[in-house]
Design brief:
- The protein has 10 helices and 2 strands, in the order H-H-H-H-E-H-E-H-H-H-H-H.
- The chain has helices at about 10-35, 45-65, 70-85, 110-140, 155-160, 175-185, 190-195, 195-205, 220-230, 245-250; strands spanning about 145, 175.
- Helix 1 (about 10-35) runs antiparallel to helix 4, helix 1 (about 10-35) packs parallel to helix 6 and helix 7 (about 190-195) packs antiparallel against helix 8.
- It is mostly helical.
Length: about 250
């Protein structure tokens, strides 16, 4: 068993506290910078709203058709919504494309804006992290700054002692570089106290690597066709069916 180390008390003042303070200040600054880089909300066009509302109308009809009293009323609305979905008159793009031709996602005018906004968010995230990691490696490389008060298994050694090549050292000792990663992932409670809840969640999400998604929007013609098929196979079942028997059963008459 290796002997216990005696740490200089000044390490807490000149290493531990500066790293913790810098991580908190950079997280707060990143939150405000990201808010400034957010684009202004765009006004939705009436064709887009009509398209979304028509799709939502069909979904609400399928989920709440039991409130209708008669089957005739159900069939009339079902036929009307099915014709509206399959005819394509409520689509914002009235030009019909070839079915064998795949739509180009890069032709979407909103794709470039989304990719540029994601690039700004990633830059606001990775640049401060890279600078802080360089700062810690340059000034505090090889420092052991604290010892955890609870025992750990050897699997935590690579996580808590990064930058220190000492296989016989107790796993509870924490290096300066490992403390950076611990604070990077464990400051959610601190940000919740300092910032509002929405800004705190935003800071935590910014620290995670952003995933590259497919640009563009889904093919709404296919979405409308799929919703029309689901609407066509919907069956009528009114909430008033056998209501007399259910009332009598509820009162045990």
């Amino acid at each position: 068993m290796s002997p216990d180390l005696v740490l200089d008390p000044s390490l807490k003042v000149w290493v531990l506290l500066p790293i913790s303070a810098v991580m908190i200040l950079v997280g707060i600054l990143r939150s405000y910078v990201t808010n400034l880089l957010q684009p202004l909300p765009k006004v939705s066009k009436w064709r887009d709203l009509r398209e979304q509302q028509q799709l939502q109308k069909a979904r609400l009809f399928r989920g709440n058709s039991h409130v209708l009293v008669s089957k005739k009323e159900f069939l009339n609305r079902q036929a009307y919504l099915y014709e509206a979905l399959t005819s394509g008159k409520y689509l914002k793009n009235a030009v019909k494309q070839n079915k064998d031709q795949m739509p180009n996602p890069l032709s979407d005018p909103n794709a470039s804006d989304a990719m540029f906004n994601m690039l700004k968010s990633n830059a606001a995230n990775f640049i401060p992290q890279t600078v802080i990691m360089w700062w810690i490696n340059y000034f505090f490389a090889g420092f052991i700054i604290m010892r955890l008060p609870f025992p750990l298994t050897l699997r935590f050694k690579s996580m808590l002692q990064q930058g220190i090549d000492t296989p016989d050292l107790d796993v509870r000792w924490v290096s300066s570089l490992s403390w950076y990663f611990v604070t990077l992932l464990g400051l959610q409670s601190v940000f919740s106290l300092i910032l509002s809840n929405s800004n705190a969640v935003q800071v935590i999400q910014q620290q995670m690597p952003a995933q590259m998604g497919m640009p563009g929007q889904p093919d709404m013609a296919k979405v409308f066709a799929a919703e029309g098929e689901s609407l066509q196979v919907a069956q009528f079942k009114s909430s008033t069916d056998s209501i007399e028997d259910r009332i009598l059963d509820s009162y045990k008459l």
